[in-house]
Specification:
Number of strands: 14
Number of helices: 16
Radius of gyration: 22 Å
Largest sheet: 8 strands, mixed
Strand order of the largest sheet: 5-4-3-2-1-6-8-7
Shape: globular
Length: 411
């Protein structure tokens, strides 16, 4: 790797999509992440006649370029991405490219940090497919395709689960037979780890403290949603479990549910395991409760007096409050609560409702501060609040790039 190799390409490969960003880590700081971003883009509907690639060359201040038409597979998608980058003078053959960082959803217990990918690492990621059947196969396809394009370049896996591997066994273990659990790798792994890592660290900076001196509850609220309890920069509990289904009410996922519901649906409703899986993952949550999983639409319906939307919102908030209370008990002392991701960053009514009534726990929201819309990390709690309440925009791509660059430059 040459001395001027400071760029990292971040790839997030889904089953029919590829999200990507090119960042220059020689210019990046946590406080100036936008300045480090050279290009962003998305390839979607891979394998369909209506495939679409949207590419924005931020370094040149250019407008978004869109192309539509069939993109057969991930290899063709990444070739198209490479062509778009090359058109801006940012090609994958550039000596300034230091590495490619890949988001990998499930790393199990083996991968606790970013890892340079070799065949042994790929085999372990493949071994974890049964516990991440929707995500790890797509991640593997993206890795193998990128390796074919640049076999000489370090490829790094950054795992969603890695940040949560610091949980004590008392938090990570389910209370089931130990031999059965170990034989089938059943335990709480947690997800959204790159977001929780980034946001907890940025929250500490917002308070003017080192991460090791701060206890933070992070609420990552998007279509998928998760909470984490972070003590001194280390995760000690998180809401998602063996899969991303457990925990908070989400856009289409139920979150916490009595396990016997699945037996009941099988015995009484005659539903198969696959049908129950689809119900709980794709037809539940806000969508199942009121027919909408867009918080903006739910709030519009509430304003118009829609009782079903109002109940869905109340159930969503009730679950948030339960986790705020639970993680306050786990941490004993809470310095900050940080809201992040699409809903957490943009839905002021969610933030206000989640914290309402928790003044005895030291939490409060200032209505005027909460109403402000901004892309910057900010406090929305009044000065008298014992616990800081913050809105911290997440930046998972920057976190992946940061971890990738730190790894390849340390070698």
């Amino acid at each position: 790797m040459t001395a001027n190799a400071t760029r990292v390409l971040v790839l997030n490969s889904g089953s029919s999509s590829v999200k990507y960003q090119l960042l220059d880590m020689g210019k990046a700081t946590d406080g100036d992440s936008v300045g480090a971003r050279l290009a962003v883009g998305l390839v979607e509907r891979i394998g369909e006649a209506t495939s679409r690639l949207a590419h924005t060359p931020l370094a040149a201040g250019g407008a978004t370029r869109e192309t539509t038409g069939p993109i057969a597979d991930h290899q063709a998608a990444l070739k198209a991405v490479a062509d778009e980058l090359a058109a801006d003078g940012l090609g994958l053959d550039s000596p300034e490219l230091a590495a490619i960082g890949h988001r990998v959803v499930h790393g199990g217990l083996k991968f606790t940090a970013p890892t340079v990918i070799d065949e042994a690492v790929l085999k372990e990621i493949e071994r974890l497919v049964p516990v991440a059947p929707l995500h790890n196969p797509a991640n593997i396809i993206g890795i193998r395709t990128a390796q074919a394009l640049r076999p000489d370049l370090p490829q790094v896996a950054v795992f969603d689960t890695a940040f949560h591997t610091t949980m004590p066994e008392s938090a990570a273990r389910y209370a089931i037979d130990v031999e059965t659990a170990d034989a089938h790798r059943i335990r709480r792994y947690g997800f959204h780890g790159t977001s929780h890592a980034y946001v907890s660290r940025r929250t500490a900076e917002l308070l003017g403290k080192a991460p090791e001196d701060v206890n933070v509850i992070v609420l990552h609220l998007g279509n998928g949603a998760s909470a984490s309890a972070v003590r001194g920069g280390r995760c000690v509990d998180t809401s998602m479990g063996l899969t991303p289904l457990e925990g908070l009410v989400m856009g289409t996922r139920s979150g916490d549910i009595d396990p016997a519901v699945t037996f009941h649906l099988k015995r009484v409703a005659g539903m198969s395991a696959d049908e129950i899986d689809e119900l709980l993952n794709k037809k539940s949550g806000l969508l199942g409760l009121c027919g909408d999983n867009d918080m903006r639409e739910i709030r519009r319906r509430i304003d118009e007096g829609d009782e079903r939307a109002a109940l869905a919102f109340d159930i969503y908030i009730h679950r948030l409050k339960k986790y705020l209370g639970a993680y306050t008990a786990v941490l004993c002392k809470v310095d900050a609560v940080a809201f992040t991701a699409g809903v957490g960053e943009n839905a002021a009514p969610v933030r206000a409702a989640a914290v309402a009534g928790l003044e005895e726990m030291g939490m409060a929201v200032d209505a005027s501060l909460n109403a402000v819309r901004s892309d910057e990390p900010r406090l929305i709690s009044p000065d008298y609040a014992r616990v800081a309440v913050a809105v911290v925009p997440t930046d998972e791509e920057l976190e992946i790039a940061r971890q990738t660059y730190a790894l390849v430059t340390a070698v």
